[in-house]
Amino acid sequence: MTDLAAALAEAAAEIDAALDRVIPQSEGDESRLFEAMRYAAIGGGKRLRGFLVLEGAKQFGVGRSAALRAAAAVEMLHAYSLVHDDLPAMDDDDLRRGKPTVHIAFDEATAVLAGDALQANAFYVLSHEETHADPAVRAELCHCLARAAGPRGMCGGQMLDMLAEQATAPLEESAIGRLQLLKTGKLIEFAAEAGAILGKAPPTLRHALSAYGRDLGAAFQIADDLLDLTATPEQAGKATGKDAAAGKATLLGLLGPERAKLQAERLAQQAAHHLDSFGERADLLRALATYAIERRN
């Protein structure tokens, strides 16, 4: 796990440097928007999604510069979702990654615009020729990220999450699984698959990484729900205990802590099994599956 910790730290530093390049500081009239975007995206966070892009790309010999641009795009998309998720109209959170949320540090209107701009910039970066020389690859990256983020992905999952809070009866396990797949899992699945897209991988290997990401995302979400129950705000870098108070639909709430933990462990093992065809070069991805359910923040 020490090797993974070092690899995660190195990747986080590289991704932050890439984000610094693709979200430049501005001295123009729109400088406040750039400042808010940088505040939201640079520094803090596990960079798990960006790490998945980098490690997936490594399996196919993709150049580091191209992989970092794709990783930065995924992290911008993720940052946008957090900025909007924290707004008063959504989860109304004051703390994210150990610091005030964007709408607290700036204001609500700026937070909305910063989220919008981060999302747009993610696709701008992916579609740029510096990310890949082949326009078909760039188009595929944009297509798959849009699908993961849109109404059949992250945004759809957020809608289901909001509706679940108003439901008169608890959701069944299959419905909760679909909600979490869309809200959290689809972006993690794309992050795992992005390296295969960049490397023009054979369909079987691309599918293996996609399946790994899907199971990893499910395990990660259960672990996140457990952390919301057990971690302190200082450990988590955000408010905790809010999911139960808000009546959010989670597998933890349905199954209880012990059964939910077992489910996360099964999913992590299943995720690692999808990597069998990659041999030792995917050892960090296997270690990540274990880390996803054992982390403390």
Describe the structure in your own words.
By secondary structure, the protein is mainly alpha-helical. It has one domain: Farnesyl Diphosphate Synthase (Orthogonal Bundle), CATH 1.10.600. Strands 1-2 form a two-stranded antiparallel ribbon. Strand 1 and strand 2 form a beta hairpin. Helix 1 packs across helix 4, helix 3 runs antiparallel to helix 4 and helix 9 crosses helix 10. It starts with a helix and ends with a helix. Its cofactor is Mg(2+). InterPro entries: Isoprenoid_synthase_dom_sf, Polyprenyl_synt, Polyprenyl_synt_CS, Prenyl_diphosphate_synthase.
Short description:
The protein has helices at residues 2-22, 31-41, 48-58, 64-85, 102-105, 108-127, 135-149, 154-166, 173-198, 203-230, 233-236, 242-246, 251-255, 257-273, 283-294, and strands at 95-96, 99-100.
Low-confidence stretches: none
Distance between the termini: 15 Å
Structural class: mainly alpha
Largest sheet: number of strands, sense, barrel closure: 2 strands, antiparallel
- DSSP helical segment count: 15
Share of helix, binned: over 70%
β-strand percent reads: under 5%
CATH class: Mainly Alpha
How many discrete domains? 1
Oligomer: single chain
Coarse morphology:
globular
Tell me which CATH architecture applies here: Orthogonal Bundle
List the strand order in the largest sheet: 1-2
Average pLDDT score: 93
Q: State Rg.
A: 18 Å
CATH homologous superfamily placement: Farnesyl Diphosphate Synthase
Order of helices and strands: HHHHEEHHHHHHHHHHH
